[in-house]
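Hi all, posting the design record for the shared folder.

TITLE: backbone redesign
STEP: 1 of 1
STRUCTURE INPUT:
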């Protein structure tokens, strides 16, 4: 019996080690890049060993390293990339119309990415390009491996866009300038959505307190384009939280409309 225990323990260790190193589910960013490749070769997908699949595998590994989620040497290898393309085929109406199915063992997020981007090729190309540029060391100085912030829903454009957005709206120099311009123009710091003024509510304790929100979608910005004060808007912490509460981030006008409806309902 002791001999069997000696054999079983190493096997259990191997299984646990494999589970610990198992690659994570595909991120939103990775799915967008895979869909971009799929749509560019929709009529005839490249093979597993093709230059296109090999190149995407390399990019996904760079992305995994940048987001600190790559766990194994098998991470997003060419076989995995090719299978993901096959997963998208099950969602392609042009493909299934021929009576074909593609690989059916995909995840729900693939369906979301397909629904949001497959019918908008211009936006898909723009977001995919943004993600690729975002992980380029020559074009980005943002630490993408930082922790996600509680209460901030990941943008539908992915984690790179989310973290880039938070980085830009926390640029200390711009925050100071945005507040200074608001004080010069209005004489106070008030939420652009609900009008809340911390200093009015809390007196001296609320002086200079307000969130700064980056209103311009970062994925639409050109390489090297810097954020300016015109891209920023002042929001109270509640309204800022609401803006980021859905995967499709809300605009300031969306929040204003929700407040107006709520006030009409008397809630």
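Okay, here is what came back for every position:
SEQUENCE:
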């Amino acid at each position: 019996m002791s001999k069997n225990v000696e054999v079983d323990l190493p096997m259990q260790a191997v299984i646990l080690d494999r589970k610990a190193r198992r690659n994570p589910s595909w991120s939103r960013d990775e799915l967008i890049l895979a869909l971009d490749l799929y749509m560019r070769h929709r009529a005839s997908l490249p093979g597993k060993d093709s230059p296109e699949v090999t190149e995407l595998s390399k990019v996904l590994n760079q992305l995994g390293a940048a987001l600190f989620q790559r766990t194994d040497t098998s991470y997003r290898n060419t076989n995995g990339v090719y299978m993901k393309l096959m997963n998208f085929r099950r969602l392609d109406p042009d493909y299934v119309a021929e009576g074909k199915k593609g690989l059916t063992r995909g995840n729900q997020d693939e369906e979301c990415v397909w629904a949001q981007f497959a019918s908008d090729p211009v936006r898909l190309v723009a977001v995919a390009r943004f993600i690729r540029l975002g992980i380029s060391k020559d074009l980005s100085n943002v630490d993408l491996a930082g922790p996600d912030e509680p209460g901030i829903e990941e943008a539908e454009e992915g984690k790179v866009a989310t973290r880039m957005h938070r980085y830009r709206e926390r640029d200390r120099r711009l925050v100071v300038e945005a507040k200074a311009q608001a004080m010069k123009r209005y004489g106070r710091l008030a939420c652009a959505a609900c009008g809340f003024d911390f200093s009015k509510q809390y007196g001296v304790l609320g002086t200079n307190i307000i969130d700064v929100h980056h209103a311009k979608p970062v994925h639409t910005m050109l390489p090297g384009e810097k954020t300016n004060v015109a891209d920023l808007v002042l929001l109270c912490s509640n309204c800022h939280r609401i803006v980021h509460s859905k995967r499709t981030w809300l605009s300031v006008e969306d929040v204003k409309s929700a407040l107006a409806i709520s006030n009409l309902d008397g809630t």
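COMMENT: Strands lie at 211-214, 232-235.
Let me know if anyone wants the other runs.
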